[in-house]
Amino acid sequence: xxxxxxxxxxxxxxxxxxxxxxxxxxxxxxxxxxxxxxxxxxxxxxxxxxxxxxxxxxxxxxxxxxxxxxxxxxxxxxxxxxxxxxxxxxxxxxxxxxxxxxxxxxxxxxxxxxxxxxxxxxxxxxxxxxxxxxxxxxxxxxxxxxxxxxxxxxxxxxxxxxxxxxxxxxxxxxxxxxxxxxxxxxxxxxxxxxxxxxxxxxxxxxxxxxxxxxxxxxxxxxxxxxxxxxxxxx
Length: 234
Prior knowledge:
Blueprint: H1 4-16, H2 21-29, H3 31-50, H4 53-56, H5 62-80, H6 87-103, H7 107-149, H8 152-167, E1 168-171, E2 174-177, H9 183-190, H10 194-206, E3 210-213, E4 216-219, H11 222-230
Antiparallel strand pairs: 1-2, 2-4, 3-4
């Protein structure tokens, strides 16, 4: 099969809706946000199919076929959020459409099913993005209040706790930060000199609150760090 005419048509459709590489990047950036909800969307998709005579009749292979279809749709959705829409992507989408035709599925229900998926995705993205923005605003507000009211030691503790929430991994020794930061990096974040950060890190290490070395930081006593910051209401 000659795919070039089909791919040119695909590109023409992209131009018609002013689709750009920037749009593809934005879709790709949503992948980690929507992925936790994809399985629920897939389950809802096939639950709705089973509720209608005209669509449920195409699933004649029982639970085994249903499991295969759900796995295929999950892969289809993840493929959608890769942000790569080349010839191979078009071939995979074409194969799905061909199978629908072979099964005798009315195109009306294909359109309705896609609309249901789109509505579910939009609702989920809206909620998750709103929560993400809310968390970032709280972090910004906390950091701003920290700059105004906390000492260098307390600001440093607050930043370390924020980093632990974002990228910390629990270990036998405490919470290990996966983001590698130098004292210079930390100084830029909390608004002080590198020398001040070095002094405060040494004090925290001496007090047994952290363990550090070569851009490696472990919060050995995170609860005590929280108390250090919370006593000022931050």
